[in-house]
Specification:
The structure is a single chain. With about 325 residues, this protein is an alpha/beta fold. The protein has 3 domains: about 50 residues, Orthogonal Bundle (434 Repressor (Amino-terminal Domain)), CATH 1.10.260; about 100 residues, Response regulator (Rossmann fold), CATH 3.40.50.2300; about 130 residues, Response regulator (Rossmann fold), CATH 3.40.50. It has 11 helices and 10 strands. The protein is elongated and about 75 Å long. The N and C termini lie far apart (about 70 Å). InterPro entries: HTH_LacI, LacI/GalR-like_sensor, Lambda_DNA-bd_dom_sf, Peripla_BP_I. Pfam families: LacI, Peripla_BP_3. This is Lactose operon repressor. One of its GO terms (molecular function) is transcription cis-regulatory region binding.
Length: about 325
Protein backbone atom coordinates (compact mmCIF):
# COMPACT_ATOMS: atom_id res chain seq x y z
CA UNK A 1 0.00 0.00 0.00
CA UNK A 2 1.33 3.43 -0.96
CA UNK A 3 2.27 5.58 2.00
CA UNK A 4 -0.07 8.52 2.59
CA UNK A 5 1.52 11.90 1.92
CA UNK A 6 1.87 13.91 5.13
CA UNK A 7 2.30 17.58 5.93
CA UNK A 8 5.92 16.78 6.74
CA UNK A 9 6.45 15.68 3.13
CA UNK A 10 4.92 18.91 1.87
CA UNK A 11 7.06 20.97 4.24
CA UNK A 12 10.23 19.23 3.06
CA UNK A 13 9.44 19.85 -0.62
CA UNK A 14 8.38 23.47 -0.04
CA UNK A 15 11.34 24.22 2.19
CA UNK A 16 9.24 25.38 5.13
CA UNK A 17 8.35 24.12 8.58
CA UNK A 18 5.54 21.64 9.18
CA UNK A 19 3.79 24.33 11.21
CA UNK A 20 3.81 26.61 8.17
CA UNK A 21 2.05 23.94 6.12
CA UNK A 22 -0.55 23.62 8.85
CA UNK A 23 -1.03 27.41 8.95
CA UNK A 24 -1.55 27.53 5.19
CA UNK A 25 -4.28 24.89 5.27
CA UNK A 26 -6.05 26.38 8.30
CA UNK A 27 -6.11 29.82 6.72
CA UNK A 28 -3.86 31.63 9.18
CA UNK A 29 -3.30 35.13 7.84
CA UNK A 30 0.32 35.54 8.99
CA UNK A 31 1.67 33.53 6.02
CA UNK A 32 3.02 35.59 3.12
CA UNK A 33 1.53 35.08 -0.35
CA UNK A 34 4.79 33.67 -1.86
CA UNK A 35 5.12 31.16 0.98
CA UNK A 36 1.48 30.13 0.67
CA UNK A 37 1.87 29.65 -3.09
CA UNK A 38 5.02 27.54 -2.57
CA UNK A 39 3.23 25.30 -0.06
CA UNK A 40 0.17 24.89 -2.29
CA UNK A 41 2.33 24.00 -5.30
CA UNK A 42 4.17 21.39 -3.25
CA UNK A 43 0.88 19.98 -1.95
CA UNK A 44 -0.49 19.72 -5.48
CA UNK A 45 2.67 18.01 -6.73
CA UNK A 46 2.47 15.44 -3.92
CA UNK A 47 -1.33 15.12 -4.15
CA UNK A 48 -1.52 16.00 -0.46
CA UNK A 49 -4.97 16.03 1.18
CA UNK A 50 -5.17 17.50 4.70
CA UNK A 51 -6.86 15.43 7.39
CA UNK A 52 -10.04 17.44 7.92
CA UNK A 53 -11.18 15.48 10.96
CA UNK A 54 -7.88 16.08 12.74
CA UNK A 55 -7.94 19.72 11.74
CA UNK A 56 -11.43 20.13 13.14
CA UNK A 57 -10.41 18.69 16.52
CA UNK A 58 -7.33 20.92 16.72
CA UNK A 59 -8.77 24.18 15.42
CA UNK A 60 -12.58 23.94 15.60
CA UNK A 61 -12.55 24.47 11.81
CA UNK A 62 -14.20 21.88 9.62
CA UNK A 63 -12.44 22.43 6.30
CA UNK A 64 -15.86 22.11 4.66
CA UNK A 65 -17.64 24.55 2.37
CA UNK A 66 -21.15 24.30 0.95
CA UNK A 67 -22.61 25.45 -2.36
CA UNK A 68 -26.36 25.92 -2.02
CA UNK A 69 -28.59 25.56 -5.09
CA UNK A 70 -32.22 26.63 -5.23
CA UNK A 71 -33.34 24.24 -7.99
CA UNK A 72 -32.26 20.79 -9.07
CA UNK A 73 -33.03 21.20 -12.79
CA UNK A 74 -29.90 23.21 -13.60
CA UNK A 75 -26.82 21.28 -14.66
CA UNK A 76 -24.16 23.14 -12.61
CA UNK A 77 -21.30 20.81 -13.59
CA UNK A 78 -18.85 23.44 -14.83
CA UNK A 79 -19.59 25.90 -12.02
CA UNK A 80 -19.08 23.19 -9.41
CA UNK A 81 -15.98 21.79 -11.12
CA UNK A 82 -14.31 25.18 -10.95
CA UNK A 83 -15.40 25.80 -7.37
CA UNK A 84 -14.32 22.32 -6.24
CA UNK A 85 -10.87 22.58 -7.82
CA UNK A 86 -10.26 26.02 -6.29
CA UNK A 87 -11.40 24.80 -2.87
CA UNK A 88 -9.25 21.67 -3.07
CA UNK A 89 -6.17 23.76 -3.89
CA UNK A 90 -6.80 25.70 -0.69
CA UNK A 91 -7.36 22.58 1.42
CA UNK A 92 -11.16 22.55 1.55
CA UNK A 93 -13.87 20.18 0.38
CA UNK A 94 -17.16 21.37 -1.10
CA UNK A 95 -20.58 19.82 -0.65
CA UNK A 96 -23.70 20.71 -2.64
CA UNK A 97 -26.88 21.37 -0.67
CA UNK A 98 -30.22 21.96 -2.40
CA UNK A 99 -32.59 24.42 -0.75
CA UNK A 100 -36.18 23.26 -1.30
CA UNK A 101 -39.48 25.11 -1.60
CA UNK A 102 -40.23 28.81 -1.65
CA UNK A 103 -38.27 31.74 -0.19
CA UNK A 104 -39.42 31.15 3.41
CA UNK A 105 -38.49 27.45 3.33
CA UNK A 106 -35.13 28.19 1.74
CA UNK A 107 -34.37 30.87 4.32
CA UNK A 108 -35.22 28.49 7.17
CA UNK A 109 -33.06 25.70 5.72
CA UNK A 110 -30.17 28.12 5.18
CA UNK A 111 -30.45 29.36 8.76
CA UNK A 112 -30.16 25.74 9.93
CA UNK A 113 -27.01 25.24 7.86
CA UNK A 114 -25.42 28.40 9.25
CA UNK A 115 -26.27 27.60 12.87
CA UNK A 116 -25.08 23.99 12.56
CA UNK A 117 -21.45 25.12 12.20
CA UNK A 118 -20.86 22.22 9.79
CA UNK A 119 -19.41 24.57 7.18
CA UNK A 120 -16.84 27.32 7.40
CA UNK A 121 -18.40 29.02 4.41
CA UNK A 122 -21.54 28.81 2.28
CA UNK A 123 -21.67 29.97 -1.35
CA UNK A 124 -24.76 30.74 -3.42
CA UNK A 125 -24.64 31.78 -7.09
CA UNK A 126 -28.09 33.38 -6.74
CA UNK A 127 -29.33 35.93 -4.18
CA UNK A 128 -30.44 34.45 -0.86
CA UNK A 129 -31.97 36.26 2.14
CA UNK A 130 -28.90 36.50 4.37
CA UNK A 131 -26.16 38.97 5.12
CA UNK A 132 -23.31 38.75 2.60
CA UNK A 133 -19.78 37.64 3.47
CA UNK A 134 -18.21 40.25 5.69
CA UNK A 135 -14.90 40.83 7.41
CA UNK A 136 -16.95 42.03 10.39
CA UNK A 137 -18.33 38.56 11.09
CA UNK A 138 -17.30 36.99 14.38
CA UNK A 139 -14.18 34.80 14.16
CA UNK A 140 -15.18 31.19 13.53
CA UNK A 141 -18.70 32.09 12.38
CA UNK A 142 -19.97 30.55 9.15
CA UNK A 143 -19.44 33.00 6.29
CA UNK A 144 -22.18 33.25 3.65
CA UNK A 145 -21.36 34.65 0.21
CA UNK A 146 -24.44 35.41 -1.89
CA UNK A 147 -23.76 36.30 -5.54
CA UNK A 148 -26.07 37.58 -8.27
CA UNK A 149 -24.98 35.47 -11.24
CA UNK A 150 -28.38 33.72 -11.45
CA UNK A 151 -31.91 34.32 -10.19
CA UNK A 152 -34.04 31.89 -8.16
CA UNK A 153 -34.80 29.86 -11.31
CA UNK A 154 -31.09 29.89 -12.26
CA UNK A 155 -31.67 32.24 -15.18
CA UNK A 156 -28.44 34.10 -15.89
CA UNK A 157 -28.50 37.58 -14.34
CA UNK A 158 -24.85 38.47 -13.80
CA UNK A 159 -21.70 38.37 -15.92
CA UNK A 160 -23.24 36.15 -18.59
CA UNK A 161 -26.00 38.61 -19.50
CA UNK A 162 -23.31 40.66 -21.27
CA UNK A 163 -24.47 40.43 -24.90
CA UNK A 164 -21.60 42.32 -26.54
CA UNK A 165 -20.49 39.21 -28.48
CA UNK A 166 -23.69 39.64 -30.56
CA UNK A 167 -22.40 42.98 -31.82
CA UNK A 168 -18.95 41.54 -32.45
CA UNK A 169 -20.38 38.66 -34.49
CA UNK A 170 -22.56 41.00 -36.55
CA UNK A 171 -19.65 43.35 -37.22
CA UNK A 172 -17.59 40.45 -38.53
CA UNK A 173 -20.48 39.25 -40.70
CA UNK A 174 -20.89 42.73 -42.17
CA UNK A 175 -17.18 42.74 -42.99
CA UNK A 176 -17.76 39.46 -44.83
CA UNK A 177 -20.46 41.13 -46.90
CA UNK A 178 -23.74 40.36 -45.07
CA UNK A 179 -26.42 43.05 -45.17
CA UNK A 180 -29.51 41.10 -44.05
CA UNK A 181 -30.03 39.56 -40.61
CA UNK A 182 -32.61 37.61 -38.57
CA UNK A 183 -32.63 37.11 -34.81
CA UNK A 184 -34.44 34.26 -33.05
CA UNK A 185 -34.62 35.11 -29.36
CA UNK A 186 -34.63 32.94 -26.29
CA UNK A 187 -37.60 32.99 -23.93
CA UNK A 188 -38.04 36.63 -22.99
CA UNK A 189 -38.55 35.94 -19.29
CA UNK A 190 -34.76 35.37 -19.26
CA UNK A 191 -32.64 38.52 -18.76
CA UNK A 192 -30.02 37.07 -21.10
CA UNK A 193 -32.57 36.72 -23.92
CA UNK A 194 -33.65 40.33 -23.51
CA UNK A 195 -30.04 41.50 -23.44
CA UNK A 196 -29.16 39.61 -26.65
CA UNK A 197 -32.28 40.90 -28.43
CA UNK A 198 -31.49 44.48 -27.45
CA UNK A 199 -27.86 44.13 -28.51
CA UNK A 200 -29.01 42.78 -31.88
CA UNK A 201 -31.41 45.69 -32.46
CA UNK A 202 -28.76 48.23 -31.46
CA UNK A 203 -26.24 46.63 -33.86
CA UNK A 204 -28.75 46.66 -36.72
CA UNK A 205 -29.25 50.40 -36.26
CA UNK A 206 -25.59 51.19 -35.74
CA UNK A 207 -24.36 49.12 -38.69
CA UNK A 208 -27.11 50.27 -41.03
CA UNK A 209 -28.13 46.76 -42.07
CA UNK A 210 -31.54 45.24 -42.80
CA UNK A 211 -33.32 43.15 -40.19
CA UNK A 212 -35.75 40.57 -41.58
CA UNK A 213 -37.21 40.19 -38.11
CA UNK A 214 -36.77 39.56 -34.41
CA UNK A 215 -38.76 36.37 -33.77
CA UNK A 216 -39.47 35.22 -30.24
CA UNK A 217 -38.31 31.70 -29.40
CA UNK A 218 -37.94 29.47 -26.35
CA UNK A 219 -34.31 28.25 -26.56
CA UNK A 220 -35.33 24.96 -28.25
CA UNK A 221 -34.16 23.30 -31.46
CA UNK A 222 -37.82 22.75 -32.37
CA UNK A 223 -38.42 26.50 -32.36
CA UNK A 224 -35.35 27.16 -34.50
CA UNK A 225 -36.51 24.55 -36.98
CA UNK A 226 -40.09 25.88 -37.16
CA UNK A 227 -39.06 29.52 -37.55
CA UNK A 228 -36.47 28.76 -40.25
CA UNK A 229 -39.06 26.70 -42.13
CA UNK A 230 -41.42 29.69 -42.07
CA UNK A 231 -38.95 32.27 -43.40
CA UNK A 232 -39.77 33.53 -46.90
CA UNK A 233 -38.09 31.93 -49.91
CA UNK A 234 -36.62 35.33 -50.69
CA UNK A 235 -34.73 35.54 -47.38
CA UNK A 236 -31.30 34.28 -48.60
CA UNK A 237 -28.62 35.38 -48.48
CA UNK A 238 -28.80 36.40 -44.82
CA UNK A 239 -27.23 35.76 -41.42
CA UNK A 240 -29.19 34.18 -38.58
CA UNK A 241 -28.25 35.27 -35.07
CA UNK A 242 -29.67 32.49 -32.88
CA UNK A 243 -30.17 32.86 -29.12
CA UNK A 244 -28.32 29.62 -28.42
CA UNK A 245 -26.83 26.56 -30.09
CA UNK A 246 -30.03 24.52 -29.88
CA UNK A 247 -32.00 27.15 -31.78
CA UNK A 248 -29.19 27.39 -34.33
CA UNK A 249 -29.09 23.60 -34.78
CA UNK A 250 -32.82 23.39 -35.48
CA UNK A 251 -32.61 26.28 -37.94
CA UNK A 252 -29.67 24.68 -39.75
CA UNK A 253 -31.65 21.47 -40.32
CA UNK A 254 -34.59 23.41 -41.71
CA UNK A 255 -32.33 25.42 -44.01
CA UNK A 256 -30.72 22.27 -45.43
CA UNK A 257 -34.13 20.70 -46.02
CA UNK A 258 -35.15 23.82 -47.94
CA UNK A 259 -32.10 23.50 -50.17
CA UNK A 260 -30.30 26.50 -48.70
CA UNK A 261 -26.54 26.25 -48.43
CA UNK A 262 -24.81 27.01 -45.14
CA UNK A 263 -23.01 29.37 -44.88
CA UNK A 264 -23.37 31.01 -48.31
CA UNK A 265 -27.20 31.25 -48.27
CA UNK A 266 -27.58 31.35 -44.49
CA UNK A 267 -24.69 32.06 -42.16
CA UNK A 268 -25.64 31.18 -38.60
CA UNK A 269 -24.30 31.83 -35.10
CA UNK A 270 -25.26 30.31 -31.76
CA UNK A 271 -24.42 30.77 -28.10
CA UNK A 272 -23.21 28.38 -25.34
CA UNK A 273 -20.82 26.14 -27.33
CA UNK A 274 -22.93 23.05 -26.63
CA UNK A 275 -21.13 19.72 -26.88
CA UNK A 276 -22.29 18.90 -30.38
CA UNK A 277 -21.68 22.33 -31.92
CA UNK A 278 -18.08 21.75 -33.00
CA UNK A 279 -19.12 18.51 -34.74
CA UNK A 280 -22.07 19.72 -36.79
CA UNK A 281 -21.69 19.91 -40.56
CA UNK A 282 -20.86 22.72 -40.92
CA UNK A 283 -19.49 23.33 -37.44
CA UNK A 284 -21.24 26.15 -35.58
CA UNK A 285 -19.83 29.58 -34.78
CA UNK A 286 -20.81 30.27 -31.19
CA UNK A 287 -20.05 32.02 -27.90
CA UNK A 288 -18.17 30.16 -25.16
CA UNK A 289 -19.09 30.92 -21.55
CA UNK A 290 -16.36 29.97 -19.09
CA UNK A 291 -18.51 28.84 -16.16
CA UNK A 292 -15.66 26.84 -14.67
CA UNK A 293 -13.60 30.00 -14.15
CA UNK A 294 -16.65 31.77 -12.73
CA UNK A 295 -17.11 28.93 -10.21
CA UNK A 296 -13.43 28.94 -9.27
CA UNK A 297 -13.39 32.69 -8.72
CA UNK A 298 -16.53 32.51 -6.57
CA UNK A 299 -14.97 29.80 -4.39
CA UNK A 300 -11.80 31.86 -3.99
CA UNK A 301 -13.88 34.85 -2.90
CA UNK A 302 -15.60 32.72 -0.28
CA UNK A 303 -12.32 31.28 0.99
CA UNK A 304 -10.84 34.78 1.20
CA UNK A 305 -13.81 35.86 3.32
CA UNK A 306 -13.47 32.78 5.55
CA UNK A 307 -9.76 33.46 6.03
CA UNK A 308 -10.20 37.25 6.29
CA UNK A 309 -7.87 37.78 3.35
CA UNK A 310 -8.14 40.42 0.59
CA UNK A 311 -10.90 39.70 -1.92
CA UNK A 312 -9.44 38.37 -5.20
CA UNK A 313 -10.01 40.37 -8.37
CA UNK A 314 -13.16 39.39 -10.29
CA UNK A 315 -12.75 37.02 -13.20
CA UNK A 316 -12.68 38.69 -16.61
CA UNK A 317 -12.88 37.49 -20.20
CA UNK A 318 -15.48 34.86 -19.36
CA UNK A 319 -17.08 34.97 -22.83
CA UNK A 320 -15.48 34.71 -26.25
CA UNK A 321 -16.50 33.82 -29.79
CA UNK A 322 -15.33 30.65 -31.51
CA UNK A 323 -15.47 31.18 -35.28
CA UNK A 324 -16.31 28.03 -37.21
CA UNK A 325 -17.61 26.94 -40.59
CA UNK A 326 -21.21 28.18 -40.27
CA UNK A 327 -20.21 31.78 -40.99
CA UNK A 328 -18.78 33.01 -44.29
CA UNK A 329 -19.36 35.53 -47.07
CA UNK A 330 -22.88 35.44 -48.56
CA UNK A 331 -23.63 34.15 -52.05
CA UNK A 332 -23.71 36.83 -54.68
Amino acid sequence: MQKRTTSRDVARLAGVSQATVSYVFTGKDTISAPTRDRVLRAAAELNYQPNLAARSMRTSRTGRLAVVMTVSSLNPRELLLGATEAASEAGYVIEVVYLPGGPDERAARLAQLVSSSQYEGILSFSPIPVSPASADAEPGATVVLSLSEFDDDMHVTGEFTDARPIAEMMERLVQLGHRRFVHITGALDFPSAISRRDEYLAAVERLGVESLGVIEGDWSAETGYRIAQALPDTAPPFALIAANDLVATGAMRAAIQRGWHIPSDMSVTGWDDAGQSAYLVPSLTTVVQDRQTLGANAARRLIAAVRREPVPAPATGLQHIVWRESTAAPSS
